[in-house]
Specification:
alpha/beta; Rossmann fold; Isoleucyl-tRNA Synthetase, Domain 1; globular; RNA-binding
Length: 611
RNA sequence: GCACCCAUAGCUCAGUUGGAUAGAGCGUUUGUUUGCGGAACAAAAGGUCAUGCGUUCGAAUCGCAUUGGGUGCACCA
């Protein structure tokens, strides 16, 4: 049982003993901001005081919340909670708990034994469809898609780590009238062989697309040509189909490069995700169902859904020429998911927050149709990206290609650190990008500032990577200088793992120590205790990140952990002649390293061993 | 016009769901290495939590109003 839960239950027991009824939600356990107040605190005495006084009127036995808290504390002390060393009442009636060193140390042992994975498994296999990234075929993969990719992937990782079953889907924009325009443009001004051979075929396609719109301004009849080609595509015309498929393949060539560098992948439809075109033949049934249930209404020749009491503006489902829209395909998508994964799923769409009204409308319709209940559909909206550096700012027709962002990040890391392998540079560069996206609440607009992004100091991706590298460095030294006394068994295991990361070999030496539990008797100093207090929070933090769809809690937490660790690292020698301190402190380093590695993994950031 | 989001240190942001003296990073100033990685650590300066009223033991957090910014609102996605 989690320590917070132990404390909660103890308080509930104490209240029951005092003949006071209270619900679980009325008893909150929090981490005090100021460590001198203890490791945990509860404000039950103050929150309950008002209600109890009202209920029992003049007969209430306590005159102040503090007096009430003192009585609760007496009762708690009688319970002799094993994990708690002291309980004290402070201020207006806070009950402060101080956790015993032995408890913190045993948690540390647990972290090491589980290789950092101590996340509470509350998901129970519940199914989640994670839709993210969703770039458009034949369009640039922009920094906007980058945000969706990074945040969506991280959320998927987090849910998976909590025991959910996650389906990772990529809702590619591979259908729509723009493909008619694209095909017309390729046929009129393009050269397939040249596109094929181009370094980045998508760039050529975008040039042609821009050309189409320039020409269409001069001669509007070109628009009709584009529409005609889309009609052909819809009817399965061989030439239209062939060029459309070419567009997809050219785009995927680019996407695959990007996803590989980002280390992001999808599970659905053989790793490509179900694009909009997949639902081309599934929209009829949806429209029939909407009509059947009387939800669709005609207005100005188009078919739309009007909401009760004008809760939202109406949403169009069919255009006046009978053709479908984004909304039609989304409804078909969610109906398909209902059939494929079951009715008890949760779906989240990681899409820019500018679409939040649209998603409210969509969810409302799905609710009206009886497909999904409240809470099953979630729009995880990220804020827009602004550019601090004017040179990178979007001007008319001047998009920011992710390709350029990635190579810029790469070269900045490359110039900062000499003699690094390409692979490590990518890990650090991508880690910096991801950290920058994940360290703050996602709903607010983000300023894309190169200098902050690639800053290696302070709250940054490289800072985290660096902290991890220092951990490995000290463990490496310990392995060489301290542990000459490996047993034969350990030695053979060690040689098997020779090429593995030091974290996995150092652990061998500690199996005996961990089992003997002698480290539990260590008296912690302030810096050690700070680190262990932070380590103890990890599971709680991951849980609330999942429940709130908020990866930034994990980033903030890891940063605090790293700060407390670096303070400890600067103030105390880890490898000393006193083997007791050495053993304890090395275990602490191992636990920190595992936690950082695991936490960064949830953010989709890979660690490096040197930098 | 209507709806949603936002306003916290010079800048970029946290703030554990209403708690104790509002915290970090960047930038500025100063200090720390005969120590396991100085990409670090310690310290100083910097605040009317946009404004006003309200709710209560207690408000950056909840409610109402005002101001200022962002986004969206019928044939794009």
């Amino acid at each position: 049982m989690e320590i917070t839960n132990i404390l909660k239950q103890s308080i509930l027991a104490a209240l029951k003993d005092m003949n006071i009824s209270a619900t679980e939600s009325e008893v909150l356990i929090e981490y005090p901001a100021d460590p001198t107040h203890g490791d945990f605190a509860s404000n039950v005495a103050m929150t309950l005081f008002g209600r109890l006084k009202r209920e029992s009127g003049a007969g209430f036995q306590f005159t102040t919340p503090r007096e009430f808290a003192l009585t609760v504390t007496d009762n708690l002390n009688n319970q002799k909670i094993r994990e708690v060393s002291t309980i004290a009442v402070a201020g207006p009636g806070f009950i402060n708990f101080t956790i015993s060193d032995a408890f913190l140390l045993s948690k540390m042992g647990l972290i090491i034994q589980n290789r950092g994975n101590v996340v509470e498994q509350f998901g129970n296999g519940k199914k989640i469809v994670a839709e993210y990234s969703s770039p458009n075929i034949a369009k640039p993969f922009t920094v906007g898609h980058l945000r969706s990719t990074i945040i969506g992937d991280s959320l998927a990782n987090i849910f998976e780590s909590c025991g959910y079953t996650v389906f990772r889907d990529n809702h590619l924009g591979d259908w729509g009238t723009q493909f008619g325009k694209q095909i017309y443009a390729i046929k009129t001004w393009g050269d397939e062989a040249q596109i094929e051979a181009a370094e980045n075929p998508v760039k050529e396609l975008v040039k042609l697309y821009v050309k189409f719109h320039e020409e269409a301004e001069k001669d509007p009849s070109i628009e009709d040509q584009g529409r005609a080609w889309f009609k052909k595509l819809e009817k399965g015309d061989a030439e239209a189909r062939r060029l459309w498929e070419k567009c997809i393949n050219w785009s995927w060539k680019e996407f695959e490069k990007i996803y590989t560098v980002l280390n992001v992948s999808f599970t659905e439809n053989n790793g490509r995700g179900y694009g909009e075109s997949f639902f081309e033949d599934k929209m009829g049934a949806v429209i029939a169902e909407l009509k059947d249930k009387g939800i669709l209404q005609e207005s100005k020749g188009a078919q739309l859904v009007f909401f009760p009491e004008d809760k939202y503006p109406p949403l169009m489902i069919l255009k006046n020429d009978g053709s479908t829209l984004y909304s039609t395909r989304d409804l078909a998508t969610d109906k398909f998911r209902l059939e494929k994964y079951g009715s008890d799923i949760v779906i989240f769409n990681e899409v820019g927050s500018e679409q939040s009204l649209y998603f409210q409308q969509l969810f409302e319709i799905e609710n009206m149709l009886g497909w999904y209940k409240d809470g099953q559909r979630v729009h995880v909206g990220h804020g827009l990206i602004r550019f601090a550096d004017k040179k990178m700012s979007t001007r008319k027709g001047n998009v920011i290609w992710l390709e350029d962002v990635l190579s810029e990040a790469y070269s900045r890391v490359e110039t900062m650190s000499k003699e690094l392998e390409t692979d490590s540079i990518w890990k650090i560069a991508v880690g910096a990008l991801k950290w920058n996206d994940l360290k703050r609440k996602m709903n607010l607009p983000m300023v894309f500032d190169w200098d902050e992004l690639t800053n290696i100091k302070g709250n940054s991706g490289p800072y985290m990577q660096y902290t991890f590298v220092r951990c490995l460095s000290v463990l490496n030294k310990a392995q060489n200088e301290v542990f000459q006394s490996f047993s034969a068994e350990e030695k053979s295991l060690k040689s098997e793992l020779e090429n593995d990361n030091i974290l996995n070999t150092i652990i061998l030496h500690y199996d005996t120590l961990l089992n003997s539990k002698s480290y539990l008797n260590h008296k912690l100093n302030k810096d050690e205790k700070d680190v262990l207090r932070n380590l103890n929070k990890y599971s709680d933090i991951v849980k609330s990140s999942a429940l709130e769809f908020a990866p930034h809690h994990i980033a903030n937490y890891l940063y605090e952990l790293a700060q407390s660790f670096n303070t400890f690292y600067a103030n105390h020698k880890i490898i000393t002649e006193d083997s007791k301190a050495t053993d304890l402190r090395l275990l602490l380093v191992v636990a920190v390293a595992y936690t950082i590695q695991h936490g960064l993994g949830l953010l989709g950031i890979r660690t490096v061993e040197k930098m």
